[in-house]
Design goal:
There is one protein chain. With 801 residues, this protein is of the alpha+beta class. An 8-stranded parallel β-barrel has the order 12-13-14-17-20-21-22-23. A 6-stranded antiparallel sheet has the order 26-27-28-33-30-31. The chain has a 5-stranded antiparallel sheet with strand order 4-3-7-11-10, with no helix packed on it. Helix 10 packs across helix 11 and helix 14 packs parallel to helix 16 (557-575). It starts with 15 loop residues before the first strand and ends in an 89-residue tail after the last helix.
């Protein structure tokens, strides 16, 4: 039976196109429009237009009997074309439904996609009358049914979470043993071999770079490049068609179900801060044609122009209730229909902007955190944009986690042997309490990372002093210039054994700091085996072997050894609650006589005092953590850090325990080796983790030797410092007053034993290079005329108006 010729009134409250088995409800928001037409396309591309019969509260609705899933459609919207008042309606431009669940066809760049007459003397003030339908993807009516079986969300506690950031195509395109048709898609991500790799590594969540449908910028396509990362959103509901090897939404659901079965959560990187439509000179593809003044923030004194707090040409208007509804509907859709477990919000500060600026109590955050469905999934913000007051780390509402750019920069600089980083490292090790210890937040609110998709890989971080982005076609001008990197003797690949040993040792030290710091660790895919991008720190446009993971490198002896090291780090973190950080430690609690929950000391085993924290030349740091488990057992862990170019002997502070080596970044072969005489030699640029067992009294010769050494150094003898003074020395100044003492921590849970893996088929002295200048803080990126795919943390400097 043919589809009806007219639309009937609809009482549906949901937006979008929803099939009910007998027909479909169509509804779109366009509060300033004068009329809206639903455009249906047949297999030949022929168009039939039906006018939506009703508009209430800005929402146009209609019901179409007998229409079936697979029907392709779009909209045309009539209204004023008056850019100086913010209106850019143009019925000659076919529009993608902002709630489209699936897209068919490619975006083909043509002047017809622009709502104004390009090249005209009046720029965007004159409308263009060329029809754009043939160049625009079409929305598709879908049947959302899927058999989820007994799928259960893993609901991994934040304290146990280890995030693995990956690109669906980049991770799977060269993965061994996959079929050619599946590579680069969700069909590959759900493959048993891929999931087995993730499970063996030990990560608990994959954070996927954007999988929403996105546009490829024409200026990149003209250069033989493309938008690889996907930060150029074309639809907030429809997935990127290139990631569906079988063309169905069910492939994503199947992959999520398979990941869940392995205990792995799925977090989506989502880009709600801007769209692919760019500035006022950009194309009219969707939102602009439905309501430019509703969906985008415009200059209050000249609505012709867009506010550009994102650097991508436009800024989505989260002060408008229809925008909040659209984003909330999108988030709920991905949780309900695809069972995803969380979201990472790109340029999250933009989502919290009201007319007066960033507001952690803004309407969107309030709506998000009170929603019963969304409040139970993981919510992560990238806490910056390039607008005024755009650096807001630690200022998001309780219940959200935040990418900690200061962790990245301080840890990089410390292990590069920069001056004055001892106190900064201490703060990062303990969950960045000066940023997050407020409103009863927990250390997990700090998402710690050394590298991410934008910037150097870990291997490149220790192999290049400078970026090498020539392949991007911008004369090496794109990408950040300050990376806090060090090549340890020569630029790029080398056969120099000393340089390579130093690079591997520093890489292992960086990874130990990542996994043993309180907070939520995030590992960039490929860092576990030494993935390199040849010094390119901005591969947003490189959909090729430069950015795809090199699994042949992973199979080398060096790659396997580093991956094994990372697996050990994750197992240790899972086994020792002291490495997870269930609460902020401030040294207010004693787990045993003279044993505070956190204690800072130098290489002599002496507690650090204020002058020690301000010693800019100090590159050594000892940290002891202590706590009791639920069964009363006492855990004592010691982290020793040496960012100096020479080895140093650390004396362990009293009270003394029988210590053993859990892991040493200079000697990864060590495992459970005992520590002799209460001292340990830490190699250059090395991190060591020790575990204490039975408490013991110091031997007479230990007391005599240590007392003599401390007396020579002007410190108190051993017996005089056995009881630490009251109150900790804060490693970094806190802007708010000293908080009240922490409540007693909850009993420590028993460590979770590692699952038995199933069979799977198929110290050399360092050179002493001069450290380059410390790059912190990063400069704010300058706004660009063309949409850009992503931004580094701009740092806390004020952004020029």
């Amino acid at each position: 039976m043919p589809v009806a010729d007219t639309l009937l009134p609809s009482s549906a409250t949901a937006l979008g196109a929803l099939w009910d088995g007998r027909g479909a409800h169509f509804a779109v928001f366009a509060e300033d429009a004068e009329a809206v037409e639903l455009c249906l396309f047949d297999a030949r591309g022929e168009e039939r237009r039906l006018q939506l019969p009703d508009c209430t509260n800005g929402i146009w609705r209609g019901y179409l009997p007998r229409v079936q899933p697979g029907q392709r459609y779009g909209y045309r919207v009539y209204g004023p074309y008056d850019p100086q008042r913010g209106h850019r309606f143009n019925p000659h431009k076919l529009l993608i439904d902002p709630y489209a669940r699936q897209l068919a066809g490619a975006l083909r760049w043509n002047k017809a996609l622009y709502g104004y007459r390009m090249g005209g003397a009046k720029a965007d003030l004159v409308p263009d009358r060329t029809d754009s339908a043939r160049y625009l993807p079409k929305a598709v009516l879908v049947d959302a049914s899927f058999d989820w079986g007994n799928d259960r969300a893993p609901r991994t506690p934040w304290s146990d979470t280890v995030i693995y950031e990956l690109h669906v195509k980049g991770f799977t395109q060269r993965f061994p043993g996959l079929g050619d048709t599946e590579r680069g898609s969700f069909g590959a991500l759900g493959d048993p071999a891929v999931i087995d790799y993730l499970r063996r590594l030990g990560v608990t969540a994959v954070e996927l770079l954007p999988i929403h449908a996105f546009a490829r910028d024409h200026h990149l396509l003209d250069q033989g490049l493309t938008n690889y990362w996907g930060y150029n959103t074309l639809s907030y509901f429809a997935p990127e068609p290139a990631y569906l090897s079988d063309g169905t939404l069910g492939q994503i659901k199947w992959a999520v179900r398979e990941l869940h079965a392995a205990g792995i959560e799925v977090i989506l990187d989502v880009v709600y801060n801007h769209t692919c439509e760019g500035s006022e000179l950009g194309p009219t593809l969707s939102w602009r044609g439905f309501g430019n003044a509703s969906y985008y923030r415009l200059l209050p004194d000249n609505a012709r122009y867009h506010i550009n707090d994102t650097g991508c040409g436009n800024t989505v208007n989260f002060s408008h209730p229809a925008v909040i509804r659209m984003v909330m509907d999108s988030l709920r859709y991905w949780v309900q229909e695809f069972h995803v477990d969380g979201f990472r919000f790109d340029l999250g500060v933009t989502l919290g902007r009201e007319v007066h600026g960033f507001d952690p109590g803004c309407g969107f955050f309030d709506a998000l955190l009170q929603d019963p469905l969304l409040a139970r999934v993981k919510l992560i913000s990238e806490p910056w944009d390039i607008g005024p007051g755009g650096y807001q780390i630690g200022q998001h509402p309780a219940g959200m986690a935040e990418w900690n750019g200061r962790f990245r920069d301080d840890v990089r600089c410390y292990w590069r042997s920069d001056d004055g980083l001892r106190s900064a490292l201490a703060a990062r090790l303990q969950g960045s309490a000066e940023l997050f210890d407020h409103h009863r937040r927990k250390p997990w609110a700090s998402v710690n990372f050394i590298t991410a998709h934008d910037g150097f890989t870990l291997r490149d971080l220790v192999s290049y002093n400078d970026k090498h982005n020539e392949a991007n076609g911008e004369d090496n001008r794109d990408g950040g210039n300050d990376n806090a990197s060090c090549n340890w003797g020569c630029e790029g690949p080398t056969d120099d054994v000393i340089v390579n040993d130093a690079r591997l040792r520093v890489s292992r030290s960086l990874l130990m700091t990542l996994f043993f710091s309180h907070g939520t660790p995030m590992l960039l895919a490929g860092d576990e085996f030494g993935q390199t991008q040849a010094g390119n720190n901005n591969v947003y446009c490189q959909d090729n072997e430069l950015s795809w993971l090199d699994w042949e490198r992973a199979a080398t002896g060096e790659g396997r050894a580093l991956r094994t090291f990372v697996e050990r780090l994750i197992r240790l973190r899972r086994s020792w609650p002291l490495l997870q950080g269930l609460y902020f430690q401030h040294g207010h609690h004693e787990s045993d006589a003279g044993l505070r929950d956190v204690f800072w000391f130098d290489e002599r085993g002496v507690e650090l005092i204020d002058s020690d924290w301000h010693n800019v030349a100090a590159r050594l740091l000892g940290l002891r953590r202590a706590a009791r488990r639920a069964d009363g057992r006492l855990d004592v862990l010691v982290l020793l850090h040496n960012a100096d170019g020479a080895g140093h002997t650390f004396r362990l502070p009293p009270p003394l325990y029988d210590f053993r080596v859990l892991i040493d970044s200079a000697h990864p072969e060590l495992d459970s080796d005992p520590v002799r005489d209460g001292r340990y030699v830490v190699s250059p640029n090395t991190c060591v983790l020790l575990a204490g067992h039975q408490r013991r009294e110091p031997l007479p010769d230990e007391v005599a030797v240590e007392s003599a050494a401390l007396a020579a150094a002007g410190a108190a003898p051993v017996d005089a410092i056995s009881d630490p003074p009251d109150g900790p020395i804060d490693p970094a100044p806190l802007p708010p007053p000293e908080p009240a003492p922490d409540p007693a921590p909850e009993p420590w849970p028993e460590p979770v034993p590692d699952p038995v893996p199933e069979p799977r088929p198929q110290p050399v002295p360092d050179p002493a290079p001069e450290p380059p200048p410390r790059p912190w803080p990063d400069p704010a990126p300058e706004p660009q005329p063309e949409p850009l795919p992503g931004f580094d943390d701009p740092g806390p400097l004020p952004v020029p108006a």
